[in-house]
Amino acid sequence: MKKILGIGNALVDIMTLINDDDILAEFSLPKGSMQLVDASGSERIKAETKNFQKKLSQGGSIANTIHGLAMLGAGAGFIGSVGRDETGDIFENEMKKAGVMTYLSRHDSPTGTAITLVSGDSERTFATHLGAAVEFNAADLDPEIFKKFDILYIEGYLISDFRLVETACRIAREQNMTIALDLASYNVVESYLNEFRTIVKDYVDILFANEDEARVFTGLEPVEALAEMAGYTMISVVKTGPAGSWLRQNDEIIKVDPLPVKCEDTTGAGDLYACGFLYGFAKNLGLEKCGVLGSVMAGNVIETVGTKIPGEKWPSIRKYISVLSGENSGKEQ
Question: Which of 297, 298, 280 is nearest to 289 (CA)?
């Protein structure tokens, strides 16, 4: 089975259930977006929501995907940067507990946090203070680490450091790795559209986007956007929330239905979709099965608050995947 290496922002999620959306307006946070905030802004939001129900856990988009892959038994590694603090320890310990090979640099800046504000309709809005996450740069990339893996999965949120993203992709290409990219958030795509198009055109083999990101990236609706994206990539995926997902490889186009579940919180749905898809790809299961696995993983995470699938669900998930793949499931707990 192919091994997957992720590069992304190492963050700790502060999942916060909000009573209404007034807090979003107060801090000028567009609903459903990811907004970067400075340290003082982050502290103000924490203070304003101090009485709301919260949960802390390892987070960061690609880190969530890599964590899930390790829980499924895949060989998975993560490159990122955290602070020399207790929050950084939380991140590293959760990743290692899942079986992730961690390649973390430590800095004096505090570990980044993502305040995830979950509205009553389960939509989530992120106020992210990157902290130590942004202190990792292109010069810190070690080509020797890449040699241990077959697939590179890179976080679209990193596009603000174009040199980091391009260098990582160049190293991966030199190692004949498959390169996958997630478009991160529609507002990030709006801000860095030309940079995204350059990276996708020059390097990306597998491209993930939700319908809003795909619309900004191409100017088209999901199915038409899929065709446009497929012109640059080996595989393109457009996730359409409760309508499922569309996948395309060459002339093969597949529609995958969502798992019929009760949605509690959509946070992590895209991350875990990518987890299931990449697991199937790493096992050479074919496009449709990859999409089904993505749907299964996304469906399981949205039934709970937060970006982690509860421990009691993993045995049945591994059993299902074992049946689907025709092989024994990997990791047992």
Answer: 280
